[in-house]
């Protein structure tokens, strides 16, 4: 969670929010005080899949099976059980097809069992727009004499959470090119109907020079940048050597 590092900050905030909720709705059933919960929930967009994972704060508790349930805060009260995440041995769940609204608050419950007994019962809530970091996409580069082709992997269909009906599409891809101390950012326009891999050509590069490329999605909010590891290539030297000296003199512009 965004503010979880600063417990002194989140507690009064939570308190005000709860008081507000009690006043308005006369109930305390939503928004558990996450700081006291035995689990830490994390959600991330990885390879365009929405992956929820959880960890127990107390490592001595080791359930063998978990069951996940969630509810949509603004929606009906119904608790939804995810079929593929019922009585599972892993501590993560793919919610790509279930969670389709980035600006919705989802409340969560994970119960951990061992044999017949319940070892742990956690609640939490997540707001993907703020809580879900976007991991960088996979990419490949191919260097030629004066250009680099960057192939960025996109799925055949974007998940609804980044392109739901009514929600604005916001994946803003940045391709960062670095040579020596010079960094250039390229921001190709990505449409919501993008299907499959995307090739971006970085032109007008200097032959026989080393370039490093990394990619990331610009966070829409206060989130931090999740930059991919760099991939580097040394461009091929020019075939004709006649113009070499001219090229050298021009250098970077
Ligand atoms: C969960 O799975 C385990 C092992 O597969 C089984 O023994 C147990 O009865 C299951 N529990 C439920 C509630 O289905
Ligand atoms: C997403 O959730 C927000 C908050 O409940 C709501 O205002 C918005 O209409 C929802 N968007 C869609 C496409 O359902
Ligand atoms: C677990 O549940 C099964 C079926 O309900 C029961 O037969 C068994 O005795 C229980 N085991 C324990 C250790 O309680
Ligand atoms: C780089 O990609 C562009 C666009 O797909 C293509 O036209 C070009 O031929 C590629 N360059 C090389 C050397 O393959």
TrEMBL record:
Signal peptide: none
Region (Disordered): 234-253
Protein name: Interferon alpha/beta receptor 2
Positions in coiled-coil regions: none
Family: Belongs to the type II cytokine receptor family.
Ranges that cross the membrane: 12-31
UniProt main location, coarse: membrane
Gene3D superfamilies in the cross-refs: Immunoglobulins
Keyword tags: Cell membrane, Disulfide bond, Glycoprotein, Membrane, Phosphoprotein, Receptor, Signal, Transmembrane, Transmembrane helix
Transmembrane helix is among the record's keywords: yes
Membrane topology listed for this record: Single-pass type I membrane protein
Pfam families: Interfer-bind, Tissue_fac
Species classification: Eukaryota, Metazoa, Chordata, Craniata, Vertebrata
Function: Together with IFNAR1, forms the heterodimeric receptor for type I interferons (including interferons alpha, beta, epsilon, omega and kappa). Type I interferon binding activates the JAK-STAT signaling cascade, resulting in transcriptional activation or repression of interferon-regulated genes that encode the effectors of the interferon response. Mechanistically, type I interferon-binding brings the IFNAR1 and IFNAR2 subunits into close proximity with one another, driving their associated Janus kinases (JAKs) (TYK2 bound to IFNAR1 and JAK1 bound to IFNAR2) to cross-phosphorylate one another.
Biased segments, Basic and acidic residues type: 244-253
Localization: Cell membrane
Underlying gene: IFNAR2
Gene Ontology MF: a single term: type I interferon receptor activity
Domain Fibronectin type-III: 18-118
